[in-house]
Amino acid sequence: MTEPYDRPQPGPGAGPPPPPPSRLGPDRPSWLDPTPTQPPPWLRPPDAHADKPPGRSRRLPPPKLSRSAMLLELGLVMVLAFAPALLSLLLTAASGAQEPASSLTVAESAAAMLITVFLSWSPLLVLAYLLRRNGERPSTIGLGRFTARDLGAALLLLLASYAVVWALTPVFSGLGTRDVEFLSRDLPLWFLSIQAVLIAVTAGVTEEVLVRGYAQTRLEQLGLPGPLVVLAPTALWALLHVYQGLAAVAIIFGLGLLWSIWFHRTRRLWPLVVAHIFYDLVGLIWILAAG
What's the CA gap between 141 and 268, in Å, rounded? Predict the structure, then answer.
């Protein structure tokens, strides 16, 4: 019987020559050779630090977007979030002074309130679509499952927020403040109560999700250092309150630092949302009681 290696070589045009005989015997294919080889890249265990840019937190899931795509997305969401407030500031500056609130009927106030709520919540709808398109979960921006611990943390944050504001108020009061009529005194109490709840819930949810949860997460995924991740969104958020005066901007910046640092260290957003809602709601109730 002719052995495999004694077979005649193929002539021209007969195809490539047969592979060399296996060292494991004629009955075993050569691909079972136990010689150790380096596995292909897609089978190697991932290195947790090989592709990690400097400054990126290990607590965050790896971004599913390129750097340019994240920058474009971040700019789009921030423009949608702050465009109405910036436009209002520009109109106020162009008029030279803040115009006093005119008397409106319940129907007119309700229409204005619905428009404001729509403009405030629209960026969240866009953000929800973008996260779903990217394959990212709400937990990516700190909105995991709500637990009883989140409620306890919200209470502690609320108390700490009042402590920060009370400590900063006498320090920055000399910068000047402006009286802003958040709730019109000419409307019935039942309508003002609904309006106060809508204002508090809208501000607490939209501002925390966009400024703290989303913006800080994206900046951290972009590899920015921790201090800049905390300071940049907080400074922008505080400057949008300049219509209340420079003292309010400084105090709100200090309050925002507390909230931003807490989120940066814990990556839990629900306590901030709840604390922000009740902080604004208590302030609006105080306005109603004083009137």
Answer: 8
Alpha helices, DSSP H only, in 135-222?
148-172, 189-207, 216-221
Looking from the CA of 271 toward its CB, the CA atoms found within 13 Å total: 25
Averaged pLDDT score across all residues of the chain = 81
Q: How far apart are CA 261 and CA 229, in angstroms?
A: 9
- Tokens coding 190: 């039942």
Helix (H), strand (E) at residue 47: none
pLDDT-derived band at 213 (thresholds 50, 70, 90) equals: very high
Nearest 5°: the CA angle 101, 90, 210 is 95
pLDDT band at 92 (very low <50, low <70, confident <90, very high): low
| Rounded alpha-carbon distances, angstroms, from residue 274 to 2, 67, 182, 282 | 84, 32, 21, 12
Cα separation, 153 vs 271, whole angstroms: 6
Q: What is the pLDDT of residue 99?
A: 47
End-to-end Cα, the chain, rounded Å = 110
98-107, Cβ contacts within 8 angstroms, sequence gap of 24 or more: 98/178, 98/180, 98/243, 100/181, 101/181, 101/184, 103/184, 103/186, 104/184, 104/186, 104/187, 106/187, 106/188, 106/191
Quote the pTM value: 0.76
Query: Degrees (nearest 5) of the Cα angle 65, 69, 72?
Result: 140
